[in-house]
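Suppose a colleague, Dr. K., hands you the sequence of a protein chain of 69 amino acids and asks what its three-dimensional shape might be. Before reaching for any lab equipment, you can write down a predicted structure in token form. Begin with the sequence itself:
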Amino acid sequence: MNVLGAVFRELLRLFVDDGALALEILRSSCLPPFLPSSFQAFPSAAGAILIFGCLGVLLANVARTARRR
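The predicted structure, expressed as tokens, is then:
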């Protein structure tokens, strides 16, 4: 059972190395459906918010990690 737990933890670390990054990406991915109806008329605007939000979160995480080292 110990081996199974270790394998599960390694798989989890493979996909979620930084918990804060995963939560921020999840939050920015859930944002576009809750935009005002004026933005929902333009699906490309919601897509742009999604892309730039995820890229912004990624760049902020890289900058934070670089400062730590």
